[in-house]
Amino acid sequence: MSQPQYPQHQPNPQQPWGPPPPQPPKKRSAGKIVGFGCLGIIGLFVVIGIIAALAGGGSSNDDKARSSAKSSSTADDSGKTDTKKDDKPADSGKSDDTKNNDDNKSDKKTVVFKVWGTAPAGALGPLDITYGSDSDNRKGKFVDGKFEATLPLNKEALYYSVTAQLQGSGDIQCSVTIGDKTKKGHASGGYNICQTQLNAGLLGGGWD
Question: In angstroms, rounded to a whole number, what is the distance separating the alpha carbons of residues 103 and 112?
């Protein structure tokens, strides 16, 4: 009686005997690590640059604001200085020279006396003319139908006048002028008198 034959196990020449070798650990991608590292460094520099730019911009803005404030304050100060110069009160009173000139002008004002018309000489002589002020009387001479004389204005005078008396006949007019003020008189025939007078106003209020 034959014994059953069992198939013999033949080893696979392609697979070695024994437990399978352990799997090697997976290597991390060096490129990814380097990439992430570069991005991190670049990001860090970008953040630092932004912070520096903001800080520099803030300081520059502060400097600009300070410089503008200084310039405005300087402008204000210069404006104040000019204002002080311009705000100096103008001399309300006239200078001494101007006052002297005005006084000289007033002193140079003159009083003009005139007599004109027809006045033949009579038995008592030619036309009798007297002119002047309350403190200064003078005689005048009628020549060729007219007489004219001037005197410097005296502010202390009370009046200025002229009189002309006919010598029997004639027709005459007379006047006294101070500035823009003039007074006139008239006489005709006989021994009539032409007389006119300008009086000083109260408290130096002019002549009338």
Answer: 19
| Total number of domains constituting the chain | 2
Q: Tell me: do 117 and 183 sit in the same domain.
A: yes
Residues 95-137: tens digit of each pLDDT: 555 555 544 444 468 999 999 999 999 888 999 999 999 999 9
Task: Please give the mean pLDDT across all residues of the chain.
Answer: 74
Same domain, 116 and 187: yes
- Confirm whether 97 is domain-assigned: no
The tokens of 28 are what? 């991390």
Residue 206: its pLDDT value, please? 80
Q: How many CB atoms lie within 10 A of CB 187?
A: 22
Q: Which structural domain, as residue segments, surrounds residue 150?
A: 105-204
| 156 shares its domain with 196 | yes
Residue matched to tokens 């200025």: 160
Instruction: Lay out the sheet containing 159-165: strands in order across.
Output: 136-140, 128-133, 159-165, 193-199
Pair 48, 121 in one domain? no
At 129, is the secondary structure helix, strand, or coil? strand
* 125 shares a domain with 73: no
List the end-to-end C-alpha distance of the chain, in Å, as a whole number.
190
Mean pLDDT confidence for 51-63: 63
